[in-house]
């Protein structure tokens, strides 16, 4: 397929006006080769710095990686292109999944497989085993985007997450986990009473204790000159580091106040 033709199709699919469209950026190698540009305000919601954080603190070389909720493939494409042995991307929005498939074909990324499916609780037992599993910003949509039979109320969410992560112990050695503060992304149904990182950390601690995962480290963002970057903290985080968190994160969006947890399987 000609580059121009591909660029037009990709941009059409990208702007499909669905709930999670215009969410991720395009990897640099895609932008450069196809002369394609998408505008995501990285000051409000970002993937570039999340990706830098990931590749600095996890070794993806020759690993089997799964991306649950891969969206338009920013992480899957980058990791398949630069590191991994195999990447399996799950994305239920077919338009967005097709972007990943078409770009993988164009760039001959034969190590990247995209499935246009969500990963609901009942699907977990069928997943392939992986080394590193990305679970980024999907869990707080349970009950809205999927599994509404299991998460009928916000009060069901914590036990659902425990159950979900417990089952993932059979499937992954490491999980990179991030979730939002509001159920279904709706501010009128907050999961925690403050958007300050502290309660989120306590909540994820509870989920991990009960599901058999260990928190290895936590990434917390801060503004640094013109950029927002994530700093790496070994777990447990020292109380003096947490004390200054709200100061460091003052003025940052809800998205950037979502910590990035690296979890390891205790099996
Ligand atoms: C908020 S976006 C997060 C995208 C990406 N993981 C990130 O953090 O940049 C949530 C994504 O999960 C997808 N999704 C919805 N239900 C899902 C399910 N049951 N399993 C996997 N992904 C799902 C959506 O289509 C969307 O692309």
Q: How many DSSP-defined strands?
A: 8
Which percent range fits the helix content? 25-40%
* Architecture per CATH nomenclature, i.e. the level-2 architecture: 3-Layer(aba) Sandwich
Number of individual domains: 1
* % residues in beta strands: 15-25%
Rough outline? globular
Average of pLDDT? 96
By CATH reckoning, the class would read: Alpha Beta
| Radius of gyration, whole Å | 18 Å
| SSE topology string | HHHEHEHEEHEHEEHHE
| Distinct small molecules | S-adenosylmethionine
> Quaternary arrangement of the chains shown?
single chain
Low-confidence stretches: none
Verbal overview:
The structure is a single chain. The protein is of the alpha/beta class and 267 residues long. It has a single domain, classed as Rossmann fold. 32% of the residues lie in helices and 20% in strands. It has an 8-stranded mixed sheet with strand order 3-2-1-4-5-8-6-7, sandwiched between helices. The chain is globular, with a radius of gyration of 18 Å. The site of S-adenosylmethionine (SAM) has 20 residues, from loops.
């Amino acid at each position: 397929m000609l580059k121009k033709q591909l660029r037009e199709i990709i941009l059409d699919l990208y702007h499909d006006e669905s709930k999670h469209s215009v969410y991720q950026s395009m990897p640099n190698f895609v932008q450069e080769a196809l002369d394609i540009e998408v505008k995501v305000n990285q000051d409000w919601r970002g993937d570039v710095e999340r990706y830098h954080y990931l590749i600095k603190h996890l070794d993806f070389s020759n690993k089997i990686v799964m991306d649950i909720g891969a969206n338009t493939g920013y992480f899957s494409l980058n990791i398949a292109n630069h590191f991994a042995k195999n990447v399996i991307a799950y994305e239920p929005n077919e338009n967005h999944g097709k972007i990943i498939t078409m770009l993988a074909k164009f760039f001959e990324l034969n190590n990247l497989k995209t499935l246009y499916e969500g990963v609901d609780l009942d699907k977990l037992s069928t997943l392939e085993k992986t080394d590193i599993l990305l679970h980024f910003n999907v869990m707080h949509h349970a009950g809205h985007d999927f599994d509404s039979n299991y998460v009928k109320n916000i009060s069901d969410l914590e036990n659902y997450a425990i159950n979900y992560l417990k089952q993932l112990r059979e499937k992954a050695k490491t999980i990179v986990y991030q979730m939002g503060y509001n159920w279904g992304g709706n501010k009128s149904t907050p999961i925690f009473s403050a958007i300050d990182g502290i309660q989120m950390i306590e909540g994820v601690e509870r989920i991990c204790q009960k599901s058999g995962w260990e928190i290895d480290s936590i990434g917390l963002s801060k503004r640094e000159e013109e950029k927002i970057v994530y700093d790496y903290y070994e777990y447990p985080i020292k109380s003096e580091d947490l004390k200054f968190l709200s100061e460091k994160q003052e003025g940052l969006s809800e998205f950037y106040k979502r910590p990035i947890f690296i979890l390891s399987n205790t099996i």
